[in-house]
Each structure stands twice: as C-alpha cells, then as structure tokens.
C-alpha cells in the first residue's frame, strides 16, 4: 500500500520542480463509454493517481506556487445520495479532508473558478499536455490572454515515476505473485484445454480471485503461428497438440502492473526444434538480464540482444551470411522486430523518460523496473526459414528491478527452464 504520507511527499517533490509564480493542474481520467450508456470499469489516470492516490472520477488537483510558497487543493465529486444510489458511495469533501494531506479539499464543480481566481500574476500553467479534457480546454480559453506559457506537468511526474519507492516495488511484487499463480496454472492446464480463450479465462479467474484490479493489458494467448502476430489478442483458435503457446499476461494490483511472457508446449513436452529455439531465447534473456546494473544503457542491452539473436539465427540456418553484415542490414529484425524491454510501473509501458532534457539516453539506475523480453518469431509462410522451425514464435519476459549492485529478477519464481516446464506439466497431467 502507498501511504498518504508518500503521496504527500510526491506532491512536495513535484512542487519543488515548479517555477515560482506558477500553477499546475492534473485531472482525473474520464469514464470511458463501452457502448450507449454502459461504461468500461473506471481506471484513474496514472499521473493523477501517482500524485493523489485518489481513485474516483470527476476529480482534480491544483498546485498554486506563489513567492516560493505552495498550496495544494484537491477537488472531488460532492456527495449526492441520488447519484450514489446508482453508482456507489463517494468519498466526498468532508472525508477527503480527513484522509488526504492537502491544504484544502473542494467540490469538483469549483475547480475551474478556483484556478482562475488564483491566476493573477501567474506566469505559467503546468498540465498534462497529452490529456484531452474539457476542463483543461476551458482553462486554456480563459487563461490564454494573461498567461506567458504552458508547460508539460506530466513530464515532471513521469520523471519522478522512473525510480520506484520500496512501497511501489512491494506492489509490483504482489502483482507478480498473482501473475505467477496464473502462469503456473496455465502450465498445469494447457494439456487439458482446447481453446486459447480457455487459457485466457484461467488468467482472469486467478487475477480476480486474488484481488487484482484487472489485467495490466489484454492477455495474449497465441498458439502456434499466432505467436508471430505480436499483439495477438483474439485468443479464439483451437489449441493443437505439438504446438507452442505464447502467453503474455500480467495483472494490475493496486494500480501497479506486472508483465510476464512464457511460451510452453501445448502437450507438456518440447519437440527437438522447439527446444532448440526456446533455449536460444532463454540464453539470450539470461545474458541480457546479467548485464543489468546502474550505468548500463538500455540501448546496449538492445544491441547485445540483437547481436546474440542474429548469431543464433545464423547458427540455426534461419539467416544466412556474415553476422556483422546481417546486423548492419538489420536482417535479424524480420524475426526479432521489437525492443528488449521497457519500464513498467503504474502503466505496463510506464510513461517514464528514456532520454534526459538534452536528449541524452538515461542509463539504468537503482530503483528502475524494466521488462526483459527477447523473442524469435518465425512465420509459417516464410519459405526462407528451415521448414522445421516455421510456425513457431517464442518470447520469454521477466520483470527486473535495477539495484545498487546489479539487479533483482522480481519474477524469478515463475518457472522457465525447459526441464522445469516439462516436469511441472508431467506432474499435473
Ligand atoms: N505485454 C506487453 C509487452 O510485453 O510489452
Ligand atoms: Mn513487456
Ligand atoms: Mn508482455
């Protein structure tokens, strides 16, 4: 759990980075319509949540920084018994005053007026430039004549989100504990199930049963050649004996993501070719993880993963020619087209900067959490690939915390060795 004190400290840190005589606003995300008058389950905007811990919609946050002093106001939906009958109880102004460490709490209907009332002598307004919101548009319209500039407040928050606190790491670990149960259950049940969606259902079952908010992204259950579609989410094909199943699935727990891929044989036993390819990806993944420590560049991890995979592709006869030349011509990208990994946290692809203000790449630092997820994707209809490998796609993905001395694999408990996967499947068949 993230304490109110930690949310308060985040706001203090954010305010320090604001220019003097400026305002900053953050707004809650808008409920999203699914169709007609039904909505998707509500999920708070990540930056707004990071700074407030407030989970309801129709809320806003205002920082007023004047003569180096800061005042923070939280705006929340007022209590309304008629509305609460349909959509549930609200925190309301009174309770929010007690629970949230801010200078003031007001009804959300007073947000725009309050910002305008505090805008005299203000030089700039920070807000999340990505967010399209009528409240922000209204402020821009009203403030434009007197404001000097607009700045991206999200960039400040997102840079802060780069380094995870102990409490954040604990939540990611908690998410991973649930995700581990789901992946292990999938390994156990794959032999008995007939369709990709049945495996997806097992993930959703465990996520919900264990109290996760939801999946952190739509679960991918891609059997056989479907694994060669990187964002395959249809999950509607039959599971066939002899094929591999790529499962990329992770839950979100208390707003923090997990992001794990395992690729397993449907019938519990790898064929010779599947094992050859799998061991290559696993070996590359381990080598790249072992490189991780403060000061290392993510682009170096990328380059090394490409070199290792290209080398392996030549050895397996998937690519022909000199490794250096193939790398230069980017030939390996046909079969390894994506990045080695990404930051994760409140978003599965956490919105943290990869470059500093000068455009220089930010090296790994203790407290960052990244995925490491090399893969090889060999489409069924690619005649250039040796026939025995066609129709196989393999990715192995773990979630890694960078530590002062190196790294900690937060998902090391989710099995991935060939012998372990086979033994596990056997013990459950
Ligand atoms: N699950 C999305 C990704 O691996 O990046
Ligand atoms: Mn990922
Ligand atoms: Mn993933």
Short description:
With 429 residues, the protein is of the alpha+beta class. The protein is built from 13 helices and 19 strands.
Briefly note the CATH topology name of the largest domain.
Creatine Amidinohydrolase
- The low-confidence parts are none
CATH superfamily of the largest domain: Creatinase/methionine aminopeptidase superfamily
Please state how the strands of the largest beta sheet are arranged side by side: 6-5-4-1-7-8
**Structural domains: how many:** 2
Share of β-strand residues: 15-25%
Overall mean confidence score, pLDDT: 96
How does this model look, in words?
This protein is of the alpha+beta class and 429 residues long. The chain folds into two domains: 4-160, Creatine Amidinohydrolase, Chain A, domain 1 (3-Layer(aba) Sandwich); 166-428, Creatine Amidinohydrolase (Alpha-Beta Complex), CATH 3.90.230. Helices cover 36% and strands 19% of the residues. It has 13 helices and 19 strands. The strands form six sheets. Strands 6-5-4-1-7-8 form a six-stranded mixed β-sheet. The protein has a three-stranded antiparallel β-sheet with strand order 9-12-13. Strands 10-11-14 form a three-stranded antiparallel β-sheet, covered by helices on one side. The longest helix is centred in the middle third of the chain and has 24 residues, at 166-189. The protein is globular, with a radius of gyration of 24 Å. It binds glycine (GLY) and manganese (II) ion (2 copies).
């Amino acid at each position: 759990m993230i304490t109110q004190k930690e949310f308060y400290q985040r706001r203090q840190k954010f305010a320090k980075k604001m220019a003097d005589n400026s305002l900053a606003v953050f707004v809650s995300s808008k409920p999203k319509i699914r169709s007609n008058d039904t909505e998707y389950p509500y999920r708070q905007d990540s930056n707004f949540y990071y700074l407030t811990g407030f989970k309801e919609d129709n809320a806003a946050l205002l920082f007023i920084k004047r003569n180096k002093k800061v005042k923070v106001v939280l705006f929340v939906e007022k209590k309304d018994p008629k509305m609460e009958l349909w959509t549930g109880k609200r925190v309301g102004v009174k309770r929010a005053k007690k629970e949230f460490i801010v200078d003031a709490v007001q009804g959300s209907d007073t947000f725009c007026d309050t910002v305008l009332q505090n805008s005299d002598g203000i030089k700039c307004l920070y807000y999340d430039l990505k967010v399209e919101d009528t409240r922000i548009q209204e402020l821009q319209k009203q403030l434009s004549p007197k404001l000097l500039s607009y700045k991206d407040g999200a960039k400040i928050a997102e840079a802060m989100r780069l380094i995870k606190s102990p409490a954040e790491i604990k939540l990611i670990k908690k998410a991973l504990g649930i995700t581990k149960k789901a992946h292990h259950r999938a390994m156990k049940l794959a032999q008995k199930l007939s369709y990709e969606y049945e495996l997806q259902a097992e993930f959703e079952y465990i996520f919900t049963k264990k109290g996760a908010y939801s999946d952190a992204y739509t679960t991918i259950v891609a059997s056989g050649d479907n694994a060669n579609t990187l964002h395959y989410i249809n999950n509607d094909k039959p599971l066939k004996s002899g094929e591999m199943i790529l499962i990329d699935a992770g839950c979100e727990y208390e707003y923090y993501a997990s992001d794990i891929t395992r690729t397993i044989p449907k019938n519990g036993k790898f064929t010779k070719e599947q094992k050859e390819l799998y061991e290559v990806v696993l070996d590359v993944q381990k080598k790249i993880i072992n490189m991780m420590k403060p000061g290392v560049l993510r682009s170096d991890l990328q380059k090394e993963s490409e070199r290792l995979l290209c080398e392996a592709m030549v050895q397996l006869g998937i690519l022909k020619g000199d490794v250096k030349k193939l790398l230069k011509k980017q030939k390996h990208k046909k079969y390894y087209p994506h990045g080695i990994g990404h930051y994760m946290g409140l978003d599965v692809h956490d919105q943290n900067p990869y470059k500093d203000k000068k455009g220089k790449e930010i090296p790994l630092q203790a407290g960052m959490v990244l995925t490491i997820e090399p893969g090889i994707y060999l489409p069924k209809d690619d005649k250039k690939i040796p026939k025995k490998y066609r129709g196989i796609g393999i990715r192995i993905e773990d979630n890694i915390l960078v530590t002062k001395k190196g790294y900690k694999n937060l998902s090391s408990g989710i099995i991935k060795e060939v012998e372990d996967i086979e033994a596990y499947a056997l013990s459950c068949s």
